[in-house]
Write a structure and sequence with these properties.
six-stranded antiparallel β-sheet; 5 helices
Length: 171
């Protein structure tokens, strides 16, 4: 009977939307449910929704003569007044280790890129790779080995290392 066919399609959509909502998935109508069959990959960036929003320093990779604690202390000194979650995670890691922080003579924040400051060790840059390279610092690292969020550090004109920082995924 054609009537059963006409009724079964909307009923299947309503059933699918209902099951999705019970599992916490909000679908806006049958068209979006139908489109799911064409999806090949899903990429999400929802800090605080899919993740806990508490960034932590996972590792410190150093270059030249600097130790991990030295790079952490110097970068945390630059980031100590930052309200950015990544900057706060660097300061938290330094405070956890009870490293003494210095007060920068001059501090300049470049939105979306990083901070630069004058410390007794010289001019310090902390930020993304592009930020350091724009300021004449050659970053000697293979991009393919990087994971998570990275903060690069240069001290007195030399690449000193980088931090690997990541967020925790919610259960």
């Amino acid at each position: 009977c054609p009537c059963a066919l006409v009724l079964s399609v909307p009923l299947a959509f309503f059933s699918g939307i209902g099951v999705g909502s019970k599992k916490g998935i909000l679908l806006k109508g049958g068209a979006s449910l139908e489109f799911l069959s064409k999806i090949g990959a899903v990429v999400l960036d929802k800090t605080g929704t899919l993740t806990k929003g508490n960034f932590r320093v996972q590792s410190i990779v150093t270059a030249w003569k600097y130790s991990a604690d030295e790079v952490l202390r110097i970068c945390a000194s630059c980031e100590q007044h930052s309200t950015h979650p990544i900057g706060e995670s660097i300061v938290a890691a330094a405070l956890e280790k009870r490293l003494p922080l210095e007060r920068p003579v001059m501090l300049k924040e470049t939105a979306g890129k990083g901070v630069s400051a004058w410390l007794p060790q010289g001019r310090v840059y902390c930020g993304n790779k592009t930020f350091l390279e724009e300021n004449g610092i050659h970053v000697t690292i293979n991009q393919e080995i990087l994971k998570g969020t990275n903060v690069f550090v240069a001290i007195d004109g030399r690449f000193a290392g980088y931090f690997e920082i990541s967020d925790t995924i919610k259960e």
